[in-house]
Amino acid sequence: MKVAVLAGGVGGARMALGFAEIVPPGDLSIIVNVGDDDRFHGLYVCPDLDTVLYTLSGVVDRTQSWGVADDSTRALEVLRKLDSPGGWMKLGDADLGLHLYRTSRLAQGASLTAVTEEVSHRFGVHCALLPASDEECPTMVEAATGLLRFQEWFVRDRASPTVKQLGFQAARKARITDRVRASLLAADLVVLAPSNPYLSILPMLEIGGMRDALQQAPGLKVAVSPLIGGRAIKGPLVKLMSDLGAGSSNSDIAASYSDFADAFVVDEGDSRDVANVSHQGALRVAAMPTLIPDAPRAEELARRLLDFASTRRTTGAAG
Ligand code: FO1
């Protein structure tokens, strides 16, 4: 079965890890959010791509869930001493090596897709790790304190300024890559990982061609909720939903995917939400153990999603 996963941040990386354990690399594509990407000290940094890369290659810092384990920060200490802008972003020495390589290859004219493929093979990651777009599409945060780039709001200001609106203007002008489109159209199962829907998934859905490709994709399209017991395991999801007046329930999240998704998965502890979400349209709703703190639990969820998709294939049932 060919699988495509839309992933952003830590939830996306763990979901990718689960599928990487059980799907042959040639059948697995991980499509990654690029809305968090930014330049620091002249270097092009892609936090979500790197979190997925480091997680799949086993070098991720497990305490933070991003960056490289046991990394040092000697270069950053010099940059901070020199008051280089952006010193608040903790870039480790090993991590900086990757940013140096990526930035120089991009300057030579290589696409982000090509550079990511080179890097992932050298890190021993053989599934397709695909940036959602080769164009820059930074997510902008219109906060009570002014217009901020995503990492300024998230890391520098610790996600505390109230968010009035998220800006996806650049994403709307950009296009998904041909590789992303092809992988969605070829997939038997498309999974929206339990990533933050507003900060990780929506920035991808806003890229030109993404919603069309998802609507045309013939495979089963399943979104996994990032909420467990009404809370997000990591990150500022519930606060953000309340800032945006977007509602903070599984039904609200399911509604934002309802133009293309076939199914929505809630945590097994939230099975009372199955009926609430089912009432709102053609979505099929299932409850599964969605907490994925480690590789075995991520693999278990991936297996349950594959079983869910193959049952649907054998029965031909859509909803
Ligand atoms: N997150 C933080 O909370 N503080 C940091 O200083 C930080 C640095 C950083 C550097 C490289 C990288 O790939 C990720 C980094 N992150 C940091 C995480 C990053 O902000 C988030 O993973 C996402 O962008 C949200 O998905």
How would you describe the overall organization of this protein?
It is a single chain. The radius of gyration is 19 Å and the shape is globular. The protein is of the alpha/beta class and 319 residues long. The protein has a single domain (3-318), classed as CofD-like domains (Rossmann fold, 3-Layer(aba) Sandwich). The two termini are 20 Å apart. It contains 14 helices and 14 strands. Strands 5-2-1-9-10-13-14 form a seven-stranded parallel beta sheet, with helices on both faces. Ligand FO1 is lined by residues 8-9, 36, 45, 47-48, 50-51, 66-67, 89-91, 95, 151, 154-155, 200. Residues 8-9, 36, 45, 47-48, 50-51, 66-67, 89-91, 95, 151, 154-155, 200 line the site of ligand FO1.
Report strand order across the widest sheet.
Answer: 5-2-1-9-10-13-14
Give the oligomer, counting copies of the same chain as homo and different chains as hetero.
single chain
CA-CA gap between termini: 20 Å
The share of residues in extended strands comes to 15-25%
Shape summary: globular
Largest sheet: 7 strands, parallel
Bound molecules: ligand FO1
Number of strands: 14
Determine the mean pLDDT.
94
Poorly predicted ranges: none
| Alpha-beta classification | alpha/beta
Whole-number total of structural domains: 1
| Rg from alpha-carbon coordinates | 19 Å
CATH class: Alpha Beta
- Counted by DSSP, the helix tally is 14
Report the CATH superfamily: CofD-like domains
- N-to-C series of helices and strands: EHEEEHHHHEEEHEHHEHHEEEHHEHEH
Q: What fold name stands as the CATH topology? A: Rossmann fold
Q: Level of helix content?
A: 40-55%
Q: Can you tell me the CATH architecture?
A: 3-Layer(aba) Sandwich
